[in-house]
Task: structure prediction
Amino acid sequence: MIDVQKYHGTGNDFVVVDAAQDVPDRRAFARVLCDRDTGIEHDDSPRRGADGVLFLALEDEYCPSRIVMTLVQPDGSVAAMCGNGARCAAAWAASETGCDEVMIDTQSGTRRATIDGDDVTIEMGAPAFDPAKVPVDADEPLIQEEVEGQTVTAVNTGVPHAVAFVDDVDAVDLDDIAPAVRYADLFPEGANVTLAAEDGSGFRQRTYERGVEGETQSCGTGAVAVAAVAHRLGKLEADQPVRVSPPGGDLEVTVSETGSTLRGPAVFEFLDQVSPRPSPSAPADD
Result:
């Protein structure tokens, strides 16, 4: 048996595994534990399963400590970056080391996080609209163009997003419209599909995530994508902190031409033990 922990960032939930523990097949492990019907469950968690498994290799010789983060998603794929996942990784590292600052190595680059209680702020890098960096199969940035019946802007905030501004995010059947955009030929690596709507001093957000293949309660890279596209469209000034609200709670995003930050809660749920080779019929021991 191996130790696992469960964290969530505004409802975006993850199983956290110290990468020093041996998990022979990470993809199969994630598929079993993340399943919303049969995956990991615990009395101290409101939801069964998870949005991904974070394998974290901690180097704690120094402070700030350093983590190599690998996120395996429910379909067994590996995501280059996850904003809420990285914030949960930082919270886990802080609990392990006592440091209030962590450097997180991801496939999208190294990100610095600061921890203040349950509140975690992470540097997310500069949003990329360049077609080669999203990537999108186009010669020019995809700004307010129709894709599969939706008017979207393509941006990479660690992973690719197709962002559509609408009047009311709750009035859209996201599960109905998102797959066609997510798998559109225009996106050679696929895209997360994010809806946004202006809401007073901030934005409402809903995101259909590739790898999860469904809507999540929150998406950190999606929140940054909303703010980045809002800035590109003239709806938001640079360096202005803004509230972005997915269903799971409020996040604070700041974007500029050279970088972005994501701030919000990262909450510990429970500690448990599971088999490193879980079977779908018995994914975890409570």
